């Protein structure tokens, strides 16, 4: 039978304390060891936090065995991180990994009214009373303690920590309200295996890239090095070899198995980070006890002697020994405390297990994507920034421009309008500042609003999103730009796993509303190519809670942008704002020089409601309904005109404008009204928008309507004219529509 | 059954009332009698030295002179003595895991938990009772729960709105104690008049009507007490403050642990925020429940008025599966959770 390592670790500590003799008592306010400022008093408080984390680990396993909990990944061996809990202020934001029990306990005990034991037990029990996630995940988190919950995606919390750190000084410099003091620092912790994850590498690089420009980046990277990631050992000395000499990075090494040492070094690191406002790397030695998680059978890859060797380094036992030998407490007192905590945790676990669970889908979903239409629309219509607009636009207000203009110009004006309306908004991305973006959509915005609000990022989309998420945590309204849709895909976990999950996993307590703009889709004349003309929307569509806006004309873009910012501001929503590259400069619709695709700037107060499509008619549009979006809208309109002129077929065209949520009502009504539906989807077909539309038709009860689909192939967009061969064309639309109308007419 | 892990609750000054006369005779024959009587003797001796009537003499009197008994220096001493003696009498029957105290009960809690020696804690309670006239004002109490003890958001909002309006108008009306299902409010005469006008009268159903004034209580835990705080700090800094022997949870929900709690922090809170900032008994009890998950809650002292607030806290928290007054009453009948020393039957439980 397998040995219960939890019991072994527990017994080791008990036996060691029983075998020790009391030492002469020491003044509790004196340091416990030479060279360390750790006093006996603080040492005892830290031991309590460490023992609390340990007993919570034991309880997780016991609750699991009783079928009362689901998650046993623990903090055993990492309890040295309690010192950081002691040394940080409760206004220093913390982005924590899953071995942070002792840190959280110590941080909690410093704030009156907090109850870390019970809070963690409720999280283990997945009870809806869990004060952070409401029973949605076992996470460390607290609104009051400034610990936004993190999911289990390795290292994904680092980019946002850097973003938050950079945002502190930015908020104060801009004179904006900031929820944390000016000298706050941001903590993020992670393991030695995670440090090799590209997200960690990128985030640390982003911090250094920023700090290199003498911009304050008060982030404390706490790397808890237990030497192993599940079963794979980190090469000995690797972490130090990579980070101890890294230019721009202040490096501290702490022995997390030795409380006085860990405390002293962590104190220096925290003070350094706080005073110098520079990226600081606190490398803390830890061990991993009790395997990776309860389900991990460590004997499959380690022999018993290795496991026992690690157990001999138990930091909780080490702390007990140090405190007892220093005369801070007798071994008996420490053992009593240890047992008292066991009892408290056991009693609390019984109470936690009987607390309610989430039982209804609507309750589970409630915090995922909050939407209060009345407030959002009032906010979108709000127009009280005349002064800031006048400063941004001068005497020439865009709504007074006589001449209609193309999409790129209107987006540029719209962004200026939003930057004027929301002083807390930030616009950043690759090349957006002086250059004004690769398509000049952000031209002049830096000049208008200054480098504090409109700035270039480094070439790393994960860091761009991390900046956005971190800034949003601190009250900013970020408008990051991703240069091309293909670049979104290499950073999408920051949206999928992080930004869109924050409200959900914090039960609505934390939000990171933002509108990220992406130059998107194909049909760019004389260009094409996968990287610059990617047409994959699918990966965005299945991100829970993500709103997807996809305007194809200037006035819509402005009206939708107003709604998008309002959604981010009022409901903390994350909005993807996809801008069709090929339409940025498009002026004409039916023939060269007709200027039919130019629009005037919508008057302040006008907006496009979320999920509301736009309708176009040829005649009465009685014969066919074409449902489309983006470039498909223009092609469909052209095809519809030809159908009318050449065959007397009257089509109506629905430009969805919002890909999520879809205008299901419009889909249903117009399918019914025409009896024929042609879906034109320029994206990839599999899992594409066309499938969402057909599913909506089924659910809306119009599945019987004859329906055909013209969609992009499941392929990477090739270069040049070849691109047109794999995406819908006007001619395809025309032919398919014609076929539908003539064949069914013949059948009649 | 093993000795139950108990949360100890020390009541405020209103615990000793007319019906409490002769309470000290309760200790005859109880298991902890010797300890309880020792407390009374200690207190009598201390009262002798202070030139004040003995607590035992007050307790043995034939009639209850409200003006005399409810006055700070006597009311506090009687409640304090009875509470500590109760603790001595029952402590062998339960395992105290944490101690909380309401308002003046915090001073008793310091004594019970060992953060001050008994006489020093008594002196603290006594001095604060004497000093209350420096602050003046008075208190009233108003329910913020329904008849089923479930939180009533509307009543809570009414109280909050009245306090907000008072603040805006510069009227001295303040939150004083969050007492489970009751808001204790305080202020000067004008402030209380304002509150009585703003808070709708709730006729008592066989009990008192609300808002209910609390006679002989000053505007504790409000800004009006700031002069008391300064005076008390100067007067009582020299008491032998020390870490408690049983964990203490204060009126903010902060924990003071045996061994490592810093005496300065206990002093700072006790004669700082505790005096002139709102006292949150609800938070204290909730924190104690959550951190210690006791098996029973022992309500010390001769009165039972704290039973309701503690039950209401359990309901609001859903602790022990209690979600309404009915749940609480049923639990009390089946397997009592809240043990009040004012009920003589409790002593049989512990003997």
Commentary on this structure:
The complex is a heterodimer of chains A (748) and B (351). Chain A is built from 28 helices and 19 strands. Chain A has 748 residues and is α/β, with parallel strands linked by helices. Chain A has a seven-stranded mixed sheet. Chain A starts with a helix and ends with a helix. The model of chain A has no long low-confidence stretch (mean pLDDT 96). Chain B is built from 15 helices and eleven strands. Chain B has helices at 33-50, 55-60, 66-70, 72-90, 105-113, 118-135, 153-169, 189-198, 226-236, 263-270, 273-276, 281-292, 307-317, 325-334, 345-350, and strands at residues 5-10, 95-101, 138-143, 173-179, 182-187, 212-214, 248-249, 255-256, 279-280, 296-299, 338-340. In chain B, strand 4 and strand 5 (182-187) form a beta hairpin. Classes of the chains: A alpha/beta (748), B alpha/beta (351). The interface between A and B is medium-sized, with 28 and 25 residues.
Notable traits:
heterodimer; A: 748 residues; alpha/beta; seven-stranded mixed beta sheet; 19 strands; B: 351 residues; five-stranded mixed beta sheet; four-stranded parallel beta sheet; 47% helix
């Amino acid at each position: 039978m397998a040995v219960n390592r939890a019991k072994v670790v527990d017994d080791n500590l008990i036996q060691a304390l029983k075998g020790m003799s009391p030492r002469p008592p020491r003044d509790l306010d004196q340091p416990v060891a030479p060279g360390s400022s750790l006093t006996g008093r603080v040492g005892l408080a830290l031991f309590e936090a460490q023992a609390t984390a340990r007993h919570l680990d034991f309880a997780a396993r016991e609750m699991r065995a009783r079928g009362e909990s689901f998650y046993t990944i623990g903090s055993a061996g990492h309890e040295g991180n309690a010192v950081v809990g002691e040394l940080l202020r409760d206004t220093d934001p913390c982005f924590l990994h899953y071995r942070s029990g002792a840190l959280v306990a110590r941080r909690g005990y410093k704030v009156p009214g907090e109850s870390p034991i019970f809070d963690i037990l409720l999280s283990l029990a997945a009870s809806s009373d869990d004060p952070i996630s409401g029973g949605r995940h076992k996470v460390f988190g607290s609104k009051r303690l400034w610990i936004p919950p993190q999911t289990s995606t390795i290292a994904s919390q680092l980019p946002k920590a850097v973003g938050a750190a950079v945002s502190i000084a930015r908020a104060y410099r801009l004179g904006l309200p900031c929820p944390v003091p000016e000298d706050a620092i941001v903590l993020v912790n992670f393991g030695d295996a995670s440090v090799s994850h590209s997200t960690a590498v990128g985030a640390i690089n982003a911090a250094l890239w920023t700090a290199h420009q003498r911009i304050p980046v008060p982030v404390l990277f706490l790397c808890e090095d237990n030497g192993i990631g599940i079963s794979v050992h980190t090469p000995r000395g690797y972490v130090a070899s990579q980070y101890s000499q890294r230019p721009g990075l202040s490096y501290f090494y702490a022995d997390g198995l030795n409380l006085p040492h860990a405390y002293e070094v962590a104190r220096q690191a925290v003070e350094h980070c706080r005073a110098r406002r520079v990226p600081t790397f606190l490398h803390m030695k830890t061990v991993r006890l009790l395997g990776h998680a309860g389900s991990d059978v460590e004997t499959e890859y380690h022999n018993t002697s290795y496991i026992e060797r690690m157990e001999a380094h138990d930091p909780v036992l080490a702390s007990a020994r140090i405190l007892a030998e220093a005369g801070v407490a007798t071994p008996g007192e420490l053992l009593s405390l240890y047992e008292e905590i066991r009892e408290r945790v056991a009693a609390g676990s019984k109470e936690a297990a009987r607390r309610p669970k989430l039982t209804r889908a609507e309750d589970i979903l409630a915090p995922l994507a909050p939407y209060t239409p009345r407030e959002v629309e009032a906010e979108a219509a709000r127009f009280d920034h005349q002064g800031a607009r006048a400063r941004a636009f001068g005497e020439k207000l865009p709504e007074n421009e006589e001449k209609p203009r193309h999409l790129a110009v209107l987006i540029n004006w719209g962004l200026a309008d939003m930057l004027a309306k929301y002083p807390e908004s930030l616009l950043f991305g690759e090349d957006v500042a002086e250059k004004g973006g690769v398509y000049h959509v952000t031209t002049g915005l830096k000049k208008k609003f200054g480098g504090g609000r409109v700035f270039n990022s480094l070439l790393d989309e994960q860091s761009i999103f991390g900046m956005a998420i971190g800034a949003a945590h601190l009250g900013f309204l970020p408008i990051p730009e991703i240069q091309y849709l293909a670049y979104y895909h290499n950073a999408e976990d920051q949206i999928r796993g992080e930004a869109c999950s924050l409200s959900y996993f914090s039960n609505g307590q934390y939000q990171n509303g933002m509108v990220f703009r992406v130059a998107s889709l194909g049909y760019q004349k004389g260009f094409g190519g996968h990287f610059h003309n990617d047409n994959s929307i699918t990966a965005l569509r299945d991100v829970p809670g993500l709103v997807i806006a996809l305007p194809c004309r200037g006035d819509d873009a402005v009206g939708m942008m107003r709604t998008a910012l309002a959604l981010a501001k009022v409901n903390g929503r994350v909005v993807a704002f996809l801008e069709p590259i090929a339409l940025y400069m498009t002026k004409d619709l039916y023939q060269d020089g007709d200027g039919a695709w130019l629009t005037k700037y919508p008057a302040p107060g006008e907006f496009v409601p979320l999920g509301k499509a736009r309708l176009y008619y040829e005649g009465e549009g009685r014969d066919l309904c074409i449902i489309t979006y983006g470039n498909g809208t223009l092609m469909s309109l052209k095809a519809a005109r030809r159908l009318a002129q050449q065959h007397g077929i009257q089509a109506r065209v629905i430009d969805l404008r919002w890909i999520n949520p879809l205008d299901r009502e419009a889909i249903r009504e117009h399918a019914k009204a025409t009896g024929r539906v042609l879906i034109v989807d320029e994206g990839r077909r599999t899992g594409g928008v066309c499938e969402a539309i057909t599913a909506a038709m089924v659910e809306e009860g119009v599945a019987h309507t004859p329906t055909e689909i013209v969609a992009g192939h499941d392929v990477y967009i090739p270069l040049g004219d070849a691109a047109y061969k794999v995406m819908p064309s006007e001619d395809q639309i025309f032919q398919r529509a014609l076929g539908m109308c003539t064949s069914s007419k013949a059948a009649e | 059954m093993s000795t139950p892990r108990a949360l100890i609750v020390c009541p405020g000054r209103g615990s000793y009332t007319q019906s409490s006369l002769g309470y000290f005779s309760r200790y005859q024959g109880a298991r902890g009698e010797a300890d309880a009587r020792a407390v009374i003797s200690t207190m009598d001796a201390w009262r002798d030295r202070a030139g004040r009537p003995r607590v035992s003499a007050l307790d043995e009197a034939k009639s209850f002179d409200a003006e005399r008994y409810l006055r700070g220096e006597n009311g506090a001493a009687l409640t304090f003595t009875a509470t500590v003696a109760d603790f001595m009498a029952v402590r062998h029957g339960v395992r105290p895991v944490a101690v909380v105290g309401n308002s003046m009960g915090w001073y008793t809690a310091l004594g019970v938990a060992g953060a001050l020696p008994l006489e020093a804690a008594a002196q603290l309670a006594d001095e604060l009772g004497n000093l209350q006239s420096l602050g003046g004002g008075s208190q009233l109490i108003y329910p913020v729960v329904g008849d089923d003890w479930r939180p009533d958001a509307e009543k809570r909002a009414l109280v909050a709105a009245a306090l907000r309006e008072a603040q805006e108008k510069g009227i001295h009306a303040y939150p004083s104690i969050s007492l489970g299902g009751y808001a204790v409010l305080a202020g000067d005469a004008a402030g209380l008049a304002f509150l009585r006008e703003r808070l709708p009268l709730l006729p008592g159903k066989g009990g008192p009507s609300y808002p209910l004034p609390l006679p002989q209580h000053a505007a504790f835990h409000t800004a009006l007490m700031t002069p008391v705080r300064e005076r008390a700090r100067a007067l009582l800094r020299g008491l032998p403050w020390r870490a408690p022997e049983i964990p203490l949870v204060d009126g903010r929900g902060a924990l003071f642990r045996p061994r490592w709690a810093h005496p300065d922090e206990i002093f700072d809170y006790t004669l700082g925020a505790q005096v002139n900032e709102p006292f949150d008994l609800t938070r204290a009890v909730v924190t104690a429940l959550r951190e210690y998950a006791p098996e029973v809650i022992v309500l010390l002292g001769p009165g039972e008025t704290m039973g309701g607030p503690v039950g209401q806290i359990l309901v609001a928290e859903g602790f022990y599966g209690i979600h309404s007054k009915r749940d609480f009453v049923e639990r009390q009948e089946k397997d009592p959770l809240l043990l009040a020393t004012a009920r003589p039957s409790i002593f049989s439980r512990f003997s």
